[in-house]
């Protein structure tokens, strides 16, 4: 590119070469080309020094800075110095994001108290990455200062309506931690959020193929598991809450494929949720049958977690476990 630009004899020729290169770089950005991202940013820095607009490549600086390789980080920081100035909003997003990451990792109780109002405000920010980092930072704050839990109940419940999976999964985790540190938060989420959580889990379980979130043919198993863990906490010791989630638990337990690890992870969490919520005989038989299938699996890790869960299940429904006695004995012989 540099050779082609230097070979230009007129300004019009130079502009034509720059337009062609910028179009190619835009196409690479749209395709999320990671292999040539650092080379494209180096080209943009040269184009910027010639006086041409390069604002479309500013986010590429942040992506390179977030990468793990040193050469990519170096180009990213060089681009940050050249392509951005104090008037650019993306620079503010970068600084706020770094501050939230630092606070979420090293904040003390005093820092948490002082900065909690700012973090709470950023949970409503328009950029989803900032909302996600603010939610993660809030988890650190409520663990350091449990008294602040009530300040985050309403913002956390609003995150449960998010369409962005990254924000949603952090919102679910924040609600889970709030329930652990505050009985008031637990009751609040039971009264206001169970129907929404059930709908979200149903939508994800029934969603069509999505390459962005798909793992082994299952849409976002990480979000599946986080939702099941939160439902388990909300259903424990509350018959009404347990009734609200029985249908979706039965659907997840019966329709999730068990031929991949992602599916087995979801089934395991679903079984643990079924065994933890208030009594539902039919669901518990279904859960114990899933554990019986785990014992027949060739993977020793899956057989182990199946046996481990059956130890808990026998305290709840011994008769259902007795039906799998032969399988359990065969499984034990296989370990000897």
Automatic annotation (TrEMBL):
It holds the Pfam family Adaptin_N. GO terms for biological process: intracellular protein transport; vesicle-mediated transport. Residues 14-333 form the Clathrin/coatomer adaptor adaptin-like N-terminal domain. The keyword Magnesium does not apply. The chain crosses the membrane at residues 90-107. Keywords: Membrane, Protein transport, Transmembrane, Transmembrane helix, Transport. This is Clathrin/coatomer adaptor adaptin-like N-terminal domain-containing protein. It is found in: Endomembrane system. Coiled coil: none annotated. GO terms for cellular component: endomembrane system; membrane coat.
